[in-house]
């Protein structure tokens, strides 16, 4: 671990006032990690990286005091929500301070289908607050019980609800953000619309999220169902058809190829060799959903009425990244991919990859709306052998026009932008973190900028 310049934990701590400081070794190590162990590559890479100290502010003034102290001592500062990210977003590569934002969690206001909350509020707590008023989150991660709104925005992509509302970063989903800069005298800035999205999926490298403003969805009574298929492409075509059914109000549309149902304890509904679709839809859509299933040779194996669904008893637990989590609990030799199939040709691409890789890369599809078109993302299980073979699998997908958001890299640009820097994200970094203290080592473009500055 690289020690920060001019950094004494004792001196640093004495300047923080009443900010909670966590220096206990066991807690400090735990709070320096996230779910990057999903990847055998990142698990090895991040071994040994940890913060020198963890702080847990509860007010904006305390956040500002942490920032001032870090800037004064040139101490790296890495932000953390609940640590449910998969790419090492919360792991400090140069020691210093991890700022745990999970205690900065107050709901602020709800009006006109828009909710404003502090960044440390958990997604599940948002819904507990808003559902009684008739509103719920448009999209949320499968880790909704733990994930914070700030962590979801800074590191997430989409999730439950994306079948209707698309990616979290689609225009109209997140309306505003209150951000603090990392300077000797921190500024607090309100960003609206596209400007707020400059901090989306930036791993907390280019500004400190204080508050977020989300557009909400009408809260509905959601039913759940498991549909079973003997042929995988029948299941995939069902997923596409359900997604395209404009009159079917839906929240989740997941397809899992054999043997994933067996791997994640859904064997009571699917025999070996069978494939499943997991759907969450409005109760009044159960009949048309069953008709679409029958058209694609599917059988509804289970239906759950809304009153029987709860946070602890929901199909969400078997979808998105929780599919991978459940598989990893049972099988230590697997990992995963994150792929984007092209709208209009996604079924063709899926069939090709399914036939080409077979049981080496069992297919997991999450259908979603991208720019008004129905397509799907793959979160395929991969039977891991070597890093070289994993790279070959990734390269094959990309050679066949299937975008890979590589979950086996800690570099921001490689993880979701095919290696290309986002100029707007970089501009925010320059403006809001001029000393480069926020989560250093994750944004390649910033390293290239500072190298050029040093040469100059």
Instruction: Provide the β-strand percentage band.
Output: 15-25%
Please give the radius of gyration in angstroms.
Answer: 22 Å
Uncertain parts: none
Q: Determine the CATH superfamily of the domain at 222-404.
A: FAD-linked oxidases, C-terminal domain
- Spatial gap, N to C terminus: 28 Å
- Helix count, DSSP H or I runs of 4 or more residues: 16
Characterize the largest beta sheet: strand count, sense, and whether it forms a barrel.
8 strands, antiparallel
> What's the architecture of the domain at 222-404 in CATH terms?
3-Layer(aba) Sandwich
The chain-level structural class is alpha+beta
Output the strand order for the largest sheet: 14-11-13-12-17-18-16-20
Shape: globular
The pLDDT mean sits at 94
Care to describe what's here?
Among the domains are: 9-100, Uridine Diphospho-n-acetylenolpyruvylglucosamine Reductase, domain 2 (2-Layer Sandwich); 222-404, 3-Layer(aba) Sandwich (Vanillyl-alcohol Oxidase, Chain A, domain 3), CATH 3.40.462. The longest helix has 14 residues, at 60-73. 31% of the residues lie in helices and 23% in strands. The radius of gyration is 22 Å and the shape is globular. With 456 residues, the chain is α+β, with helices and mostly antiparallel strands. Strand 8 (174-180) and strand 9 (188-192) form a beta hairpin. The protein has an eight-stranded antiparallel beta sheet with strand order 14-11-13-12-17-18-16-20.
């Amino acid at each position: 671990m690289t020690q920060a310049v001019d950094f004494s934990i004792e001196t640093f701590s004495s300047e923080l006032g009443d900010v909670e400081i966590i220096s206990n070794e066991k807690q400090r190590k735990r709070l320096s990690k996230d779910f990057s162990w999903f990847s055998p590559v990142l698990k090895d890479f991040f071994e040994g990286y940890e913060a020198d100290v963890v702080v847990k502010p509860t007010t904006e003034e305390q956040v500002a005091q942490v920032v001032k102290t870090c800037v004064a001592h040139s101490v790296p500062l890495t932000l953390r929500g609940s640590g449910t990210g998969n790419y090492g977003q919360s792991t400090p590569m140069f020691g210093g301070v991890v700022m745990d934002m999970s205690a900065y969690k107050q709901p602020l206001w709800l009006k006109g289908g828009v909710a404003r909350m502090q960044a440390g509020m958990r997604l599940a707590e948002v819904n507990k607050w808003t559902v009684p008023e008739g509103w719920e989150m448009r999209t949320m991660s499968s880790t909704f019980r733990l994930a914070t709104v700030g962590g979801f925005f800074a590191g997430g992509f989409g999730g439950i609800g994306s079948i209707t509302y698309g990616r979290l970063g689609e225009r109209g989903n997140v309306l505003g953000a209150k951000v603090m800069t990392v300077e000797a005298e921190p500024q607090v800035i309100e960003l609206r619309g596209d400007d707020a999205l400059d901090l989306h999926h930036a791993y907390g490298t280019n500004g400190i999220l204080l508050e977020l403003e989300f557009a909400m969805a009408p809260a509905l009574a959601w039913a759940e169902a498991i549909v079973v298929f003997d042929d995988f492409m029948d299941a995939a075509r069902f997923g596409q058809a359900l997604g395209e059914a404009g009159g079917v109000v839906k929240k989740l549309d997941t397809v899992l190829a054999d043997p994933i149902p067996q791997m994640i304890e859904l064997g009571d509904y699917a025999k070996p060799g069978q494939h499943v679709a997991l759907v969450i839809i409005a109760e009044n859509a159960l009949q048309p959903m069953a008709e679409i299933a029958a058209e694609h040779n599917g059988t509804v194996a289970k239906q759950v009425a809304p009153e029987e669904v709860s946070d602890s008893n929901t199909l969400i637990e078997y979808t998105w990244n929780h599919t991978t989590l459940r598989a990893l609990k049972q099988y230590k030799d697997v990992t995963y991919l994150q792929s984007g199939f092209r709208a209009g040709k996604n079924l063709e691409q899926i069939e090709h990859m399914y036939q080409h890789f077979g049981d080496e890369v069992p297919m997991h599809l999450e259908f979603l709306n991208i720019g008004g078109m129905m397509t799907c993302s793959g979160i395929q299980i991969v039977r891991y052998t070597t890093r070289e073979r994993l790279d070959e699998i990734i390269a094959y997908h990309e050679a066949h026009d299937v975008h890979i958001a590589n979950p086996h890299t800690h570099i921001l640009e490689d993880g979701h932008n095919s290696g290309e820097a986002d100029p707007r994200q970089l501009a925010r970094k320059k403006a809001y973190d001029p000393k480069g203290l926020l989560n250093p080592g994750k944004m390649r473009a910033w390293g290239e900028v500072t190298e050029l500055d040093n040469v100059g």
